[in-house]
Amino acid sequence: MKQIKLLALAWFVIFSIVGCTNNHTGNIPSGNLSTESSAASQSNSDTSGKLYEPESKALNPGQYFVNENNGTVKTTEKHFEWVSGSVSVTAEKLKSEDAGPDSEHLGKITIKEGEHSYILNPKNNERQFQSISLSANKKLLAISLFNGAGADLFIVDLSDGNAIDLKTEIAAKTNETIETVAAYNWSPSGYDLAIAYGDTSSSKIVIYSADKNSFTFVPSSSTFISTAFVLWSKDGRTLDFVSEKPSDQYKLYRFDLQNNEVNDVIDLSRDDLSKLENLSPKFLGK
After folding, report:
1. What pTM does this model have?
2. For residue 37, what pLDDT is reported?
């Protein structure tokens, strides 16, 4: 009888050991899954415990076409001169007898290209040059003039001197009153000029094709407050523009010429805007 009790006790001990072993090894997969889940969670979070988010798109000024046909300016109290290679623009700076800023205005504007000489006669009382830009192919010249209320923009064909008042032409096409041309830029081809026009509270974009004498108006579902820059891609297939909406908030937009579509690209800071200044025609203010 004693032997039977000892045998039963032995079997009980054996089954207890086997049961503990199975329970211990059964916990290993669960432990591994827990570790992997924790590691995966950490891989999606930074050290602060916040969910990891990919970096937002950054502004890349190097993607844009840069017009190398820059000019040099010589100005005195009575004379203005801009020169780029064989192309020059000169004008007398006049004053009327009336005092104040309205007394200053430009006289006859002469444009020369090699041996050719042309006269530009704006209708408004132009006070000063804002900017001058020679196209990439050196066949066309854009001249921005301040008239006291806003900027006028003229394009001159250097082969025959034919000049077009673009602000007046756009107003005729749109049946709108246009106060100013805020920004413009030549395309890589040298024939297309991107233009931002409007007034103090609205801005729209249009492309003038000089070789076709036609306008392409950039579609928009809403009106922007202002436009600071219009920028061409290096291949001329897209036009980016930096516009304000709502107030003091700027965004980069992209117009695909082939598809006639506009898409949002990125929001821009004031620091971003400063990186784009050298990509536009230089402000003269003379």
Report:
1. 0.78
2. 36
